[in-house]
Amino acid sequence: MLKERIVAFSDKIEAILEELRASVSTFDFSDVGSKRLGILNVFMRLAAARGYAAVTMRSIGAELKIKAPSIYSHFPNGREEITEYCLRWQSRDYAESVLATVQTARNHDELWDALVRNHCKQQLINPNNSLWDMIVASDRVGKFLPPPLRHDMHERLNLFIRLYAAVAEALGFSNSMEKARAVMSLLDCAVIWCDWSTDPKVQTATLTKAVAFSRGVLTSEATQRPQALRTAKVDA
Length: 236
Hints:
Elements: H1 11-24, H2 34-50, H3 57-64, H4 68-71, H5 79-102, H6 108-125, H7 127-142, H8 147-170, H9 176-188, H10 190-193, H11 200-219
């Protein structure tokens, strides 16, 4: 259970956070037992290693050492249903990490840095986040996801963009939505421009770099230096 915050952010930020809390509970995962979870984990691992299109019911069965028809007893609608569960599951996990991160911030400056650090860290430690990004991005072109699922995933993505934009706006930056999208794109590709390490000092340096990059985006094309801007800090 999340600890209650003792500070309040702008009305716009609080409204978006309330939407995010509500969205976390919209899909029922109570029926995901150990066998179904095993199938989901194998699907995500294979999709991350081979690409989403290469994963079939047969390849999932081979990894689990069961026949493909057995998988349908857990997911009657097959690959489409597995994909939906995976996307919604991963989306919920990331949303919960964001909501937990919000509890650590005492002001808008700290909130921005905390969101960026969490986003970067989640991308680097959990390859399923990159898989989610890949599937949702590919669907923009291929339109292979069921329309209701496509709508929900794009709405969830838009929530995160709006949250970044609302915080940027609260900090006094212009063009907040455009810059929020740029920061989201930058952090989604964190696996390309940096490496993760078990060394705490390297982790701190990596997340400090992410915050610095994000603030560079915020100040781009600015004619004045907003009062809220400061040197980004990351707790050691």
